[in-house]
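Severity: low
Component: inverse-folding endpoint
Summary: output formatting inconsistent between runs
Steps to reproduce: submit the following structure tokens with default settings.
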């Protein structure tokens, strides 16, 4: 019998919990970004079929097909658009070349891995209660995604009414769960809730 853990190389959707679980929209990509080094904009869609599929890849020394664990550094590659087999393209990234605005740091996708002002990897922290203390990531887990850069860190967060077809814009916030679940996300491997 196969276990239910998510493994490096799996695809998933990530749903924001602003206003309640499943209510904040699906993390996805949009049109071209005007942020230097970014390929496309990132936001939260109400429709899960709009560029919301992500491939979870190692962000450190993990290997493909290993179980993803809370505390791991991961990369998320959007696979909804014209995709190449290159795992270093269309990666979810935080851009920290300028100080955070009141709405946080810009987030988009990037193909750049060697710029210290672009963070294309995130720490995944599972926040779902787990009495067995098992760090393995499973479908339905509540998570936080944290990007670290220099001596700072930022949490992936929905922030403000969306533009370009998004329900909400997405930024890197300095506060965890800044507003009613805005920094909390749910991992989904299917489109139907349990």
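Observed output (run 2 of 3):
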């Amino acid at each position: 019998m196969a276990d239910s853990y998510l493994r490096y190389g799996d695809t998933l959707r990530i749903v924001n919990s602003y206003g309640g679980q499943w209510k904040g929209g699906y993390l996805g990509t949009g049109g071209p970004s005007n942020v230097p080094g970014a390929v496309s904009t990132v936001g939260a869609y109400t429709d899960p079929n709009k560029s919301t599929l992500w491939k979870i890849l190692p962000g450190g020394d993990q290997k493909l097909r290993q179980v993803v664990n809370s505390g791991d550094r991961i990369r998320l590659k959007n696979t909804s658009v014209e995709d190449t087999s290159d795992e270093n393209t269309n990666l979810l990234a935080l851009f920290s070349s300028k100080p955070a605005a009141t709405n946080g740091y810009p987030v988009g996708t990037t193909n750049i891995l060697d710029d210290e002002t672009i963070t294309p990897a995130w720490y995944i922290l599972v926040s779902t209660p787990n009495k067995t203390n098992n760090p393995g990531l499973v479908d339905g887990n509540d998570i936080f995604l944290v990007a670290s850069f220099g001596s700072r860190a930022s949490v992936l967060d929905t922030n403000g009414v969306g533009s370009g077809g998004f329900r909400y814009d997405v930024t890197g916030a300095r506060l965890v769960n800044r507003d009613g679940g805005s920094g909390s996300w749910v991992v989904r491997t299917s489109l139907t809730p349990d």
